[in-house]
Specification:
The chain is an alpha/beta fold. Helix content is 33%, strand content 25%. The radius of gyration is 23 Å and the shape is globular.
Length: 455
């Protein structure tokens, strides 16, 4: 790859493309890129530099076009399955990835938790990989013999030229700091349709109102959801326990039963979307059902630890809708209390902070409000915003996340459930522009090592 957007990663002879990011402007690092060997600069304005400079109207669009021109033919040989929506993308994509590999189809995953194949794992620096990273990973997937890639498709950056199957999970409030309105956010998600082939298939969660916009734009859609005989995959019932879920669904008037170790109603949608993708790719429902017993959720998605006679559940839920769904799901399963640890990230969508505070405290028996990734904001200011939505007194504030997790565990009584929300698989906390090591699961395990005799 002859292009780079991170000045720290520039190798001699590469072209540095100065992108204007959400919080960082690549134009401020042009000299660093040159010091590291950049032989050409692409920028949106005239700057003094010692190597050839090309000024373009929009560096992001320039990069998309040049990558398309140079690499689209190669990438178009891949079968790309794209999954979009607000919540559920990671779990749905990861389940799909597992199933395809179980069927012997060499498949890679690209998304929030990095790049994965059965034999390799690459950690990506951002939860939403940039265009250059995505192209690099797609080319790498080809090089190592993959013929299929399952991708989480972000609303921020779409430039894929060949999507074979697309799936829509749901649309709820998120990224409004970037998109400003829900209409803009929906339109960004709808761009996935522009990158589908005419003979592609679109699978939608028809219980979500926004699914209509996807079906209308594409012209057709394979529908799934609860208790509607018009749906292609009609979920008739789901018996959910803390350990597993029994699902009964119909397809073409035939009834099927499947058991998965995933729990909660939202994971029923995630699993059924993955099942529908596999079936639309040509695999029989009975074969998919037979392989379901081996599936597991990705790290940090309803990841459950038995601790202090209760349960600690680590989940990436960081939007109002996701937090509401997780707490509601575990309220339905609880035998004791639900205690929730949650916060909001800095430099992101302040509108949702009071909403999150209200949801967490109104739905939980007790809440510990803490820091997520404060980034360049003052954690105390973020907390002020969260508290504006709190209308009860069943909470406390503990800005230090490690201490909050310790407090939450020590509050547990037998059969209580502690929900540790917001960071999921992440093993860091972003303070300023620096990543500090912090892994929610690791903190639970550390408490266990100090206080419990493990088998």
């Amino acid at each position: 790859m002859n292009y780079e957007v991170d000045s720290r990663k520039v190798r001699p002879g590469q072209t540095f493309v100065a992108l204007k990011g959400h919080t960082v402007d690549g134009h401020n690092f042009i000299n660093d890129a040159i010091k590291n060997g950049a032989s050409k600069i692409i920028a949106e304005k005239n700057v003094q530099c010692s190597v050839p400079l090309e000024v373009v109207e929009n560096t992001e669009n320039y990069l998309k076009e040049v990558l398309k021109k140079e690499y689209a033919d190669k990438i178009n040989t891949l079968k790309i399955i794209g999954i979009t929506g607000t919540n559920g993308k990671t779990t749905t994509a990861y389940l799909t990835y597992q199933l395809l590999n179980d069927f012997g189809e060499k498949t890679a995953y690209i998304g929030t938790i990095g790049f994965k194949t059965p034999n390799e794992e690459i950690v990506t620096e951002n939860t939403t990989p940039d265009i250059l990273t995505i192209y690099t990973l797609l080319l790498h997937a080809l090089e190592i013999g993959c013929n299929t890639v399952v991708m989480e498709v972000s609303s921020h950056a779409l430039s894929y030229e060949r999507i074979y199957v697309a799936a829509f999970t749901n649309l709820t409030e998120d990224h409004l700091d970037y998109h400003k309105t829900m209409e803009n956010y929906l339109n960004a998600k709808l761009k996935i349709i522009d990158y589908m082939q005419k003979d592609s298939k679109l699978i939608v969660n028809s219980d979500d109102e926004a699914s209509k916009a996807f079906v209308n734009k594409f012209g057709s859609g394979i529908k799934l959801g609860y208790n509607n005989k018009k749906y292609d995959y009609n979920i008739e019932k789901a018996n959910i326990t803390p350990a597993e879920t029994h699902i009964t669904f119909t397809y073409e008037n035939k009834e099927y039963n499947v058991t998965t170790n995933l729990t909660s109603k939202f994971n029923v949608y995630n699993y059924m979307t993955a099942l529908a993708i596999l079936h639309e790719c040509g695999y029989s429902l009975q074969e998919i059902i037979s392989k379901t017993k081996d599936l597991h959720a990705p790290k940090g998605r309803c990841e459950t630890h038995k601790v202090n006679n209760g349960y600690a559940v680590i989940d990436y839920a960081h939007t109002p809708d996701a937090v509401e769904k997780v707490i509601t799901a575990y309220n339905e399963l609880k035998k004791g209390k639900v205690i929730t640890i949650v916060g909001c990230g800095g430099d992101r969508d302040p509108i949702k902070r009071p909403i999150m505070g209200n949801i967490a405290t109104s739905l939980s028996d007790y809440t510990i409000l803490t820091s997520d990734n404060p980034r360049t904001e003052d954690p105390a200011k973020i907390m002020e915003d969260i508290l504006k939505g709190v209308k009860s007194d069943n909470y406390e504030v503990e800005l230090d996340r490690k201490t909050a997790i310790k407090k939450g565990i020590e509050m547990l009584k037998p059969e209580d459930i502690l929900l540790i929300l917001g960071k999921g698989h992440e093993d860091y906390q972003i303070i300023g522009h620096t990543k500090i090591h912090l892994d929610d699961a690791e903190e639970v395990e550390n408490w266990q090592k100090e206080h419990e005799v493990l088998p």
